[in-house]
Design goal:
With 296 residues, the chain is an alpha/beta fold. The chain has a single domain, classed as TIM Barrel (Alpha-Beta Barrel), CATH 3.20.20.70. It contains nine helices and 13 strands. The strands form three sheets. It has a seven-stranded parallel β-sheet with strand order 1-13-12-7-6-5-4, covered by helices on one side. Helix 3 runs parallel beside helix 4, helix 4 runs parallel beside helix 5 and helix 7 crosses helix 9. The structure holds flavin mononucleotide (FMN). The site of flavin mononucleotide (FMN) has 26 residues, from strand 11.
Length: 296
């Protein structure tokens, strides 16, 4: 994959794997290709009011609200703990509410040796731009990409929101602005209503829908973006099995992230890594590197 060498393509997704050490108590996380740590912002964030989770058929809604200790504490406290249990490069997932915040955080994370790649989550509201998410406008997505690229030498992957009219156009705008890769997809906007209270289940009313139910949406979006850009794609959305990893790669992903599945079963990513050789054998695949975009 452009900018980061992985010995396997399985990467737990941001927000579902903490800073790694929580899962290292359960198994040796060095079997993973890498992992993307919890979305980090300039300032510490307490997150949204509870309840923040709603169950759905084959998926879940979350409105965690980017709870994190802020970039300074991530660097001084979380990264050293992570380093003790993970000896590969990690993916830093960065969020911001203005271009300046993205720049500030990426400039700081650029100096961290253990970070091999920066994944820039643009599904955040732009507080100086009327509150619309950076990820829903080609101009805003390109502006963040350019700004971040100018302050880091690390590979920058832009993580796209699926809540747009045409995700292909946003991906192209990021590529033209200098992105080294695309990460996709983030959660789809969703809501559940409690029939007893007759009110939305999550306090924030709506949240991000993810899990197996969104897998076909993600495959289709990855497939279309692969045809439009020349930079690598990290594919995600509903991946829960080794077969899903292979399918996502055939659509166009160079590596694959696993999100909600880690919350259903903390061993999900481990089981996917361990199950890959058998799945490859079953489908006559000798080398996963050769199958990216194979469905085109
Ligand atoms: C509880 C939870 C927290 C998340 N937090 C983040 C985050 O901080 N940054 C981010 O870019 N994506 C975040 N995501 C999105 C996931 O990384 C992933 O893009 C999405 O859930 C789709 O994958 P999945 O269907 O496998 O869950 C979060 C998802 C969940 C379920």
């Amino acid at each position: 994959m452009s900018g980061l060498k992985l010995d396997n393509p399985v990467i737990p997704a941001s927000g579902t794997f903490g800073f790694g050490y929580e899962f290292a108590q359960l198994y040796d996380i060095n079997i993973l290709g890498s992992f993307s740590f919890k979305g980090t912002t300039k300032e510490p964030r307490f997150g949204n009011p509870t309840p923040r989770i709603a169950e759905c058929t084959s998926g879940m809604i979350n409105s965690v609200g980017l709870q994190n200790p802020g970039i300074d504490k991530v660097i001084s406290e979380e990264l050293p703990k992570m380093k003790k249990c993970f000896n590969k490069k990690v993916i830093a997932n960065i969020s911001g509410f203005s271009v300046d915040e993205y720049v500030y955080t990426c400039e700081k994370i650029d100096k961290e040796e253990q970070v091999g790649l920066i994944e820039v989550n643009i599904s955040c509201p732009n507080v100086h731009g009327g509150g619309m998410s950076f990820g829903t406008s080609c101009e805003a997505a390109a502006e963040v990409t350019k700004a971040v690229k100018s302050v880091t030498a690390k590979p920058v992957y832009i993580k796209l929101s699926p809540n747009v009219t045409d995700i292909v156009k946003i991906a192209e705008a990021c590529e033209n602005a200098g992105a080294d890769g695309i990460s996709m997809i983030n959660t789809l906007m969703g809501m559940r209503i409690d029939l007893k209270t007759k009110k939305p289940v999550v306090a924030n009313k709506s949240g991000g829908f993810s899990g197996p139910a969104i897998f076909p949406v993600a495959v289709s979006m990855v497939y279309r973006v692969y045809e439009a850009v020349d930079i690598p794609i990290i594919g995600m959305g509903g991946v829960a099995s080794p077969e899903n990893v292979i399918e996502m790669m055939l659509a166009g992903a160079s590596a694959v992230e696993v999100g909600a599945a880690n919350l259903i079963d903390p061993f999900a990513s481990k089981k996917i890594v361990e199950g890959l050789p058998d799945a490859m054998k079953k489908y006559g695949i000798n080398n996963l590197k050769d199958i990216t975009g194979g469905a085109h």
